[in-house]
Amino acid sequence: MSVERFIDNEVKGNDVVLFMKGTPQFPMCGFSGQTVQILDYLGVQYKGLNVLENDELRQGIKAYSNWPTIPQLYVKGEFVGGCDIVREMFQAGELQSLFKEKGIAVKESAQV
Hints:
Elements: H1 3-13, E1 16-20, H2 30-42, E2 47-50, H3 55-65, E3 72-75, E4 78-81, H4 83-92, H5 94-101
Parallel strand pairs: 1-2
Antiparallel strand pairs: 1-3, 3-4
Helix pairs in contact: 1-3, 2-4
């Protein structure tokens, strides 16, 4: 399977996917760590994919999204953004609203 097809299958086959450096349990960069903290705070179920395990995946996700940095968050097949965008959306309550609109469960205490 090509890396493009793998990425496409992951993005379309999971409600929330985070392409990151490291794993949700052990992020390997501050930006990935911040994004994981936000998702965990919201109680969102997501799949984390470690781009450090495979350079083809690391380069492939950048080409797939036409976005140069990692982490990258996808919700219901749509690219949301990287750490800065996710953090800004979270602080403004927009991320919580996006999850709600897409039918993704968020912790009651974290809702807008």
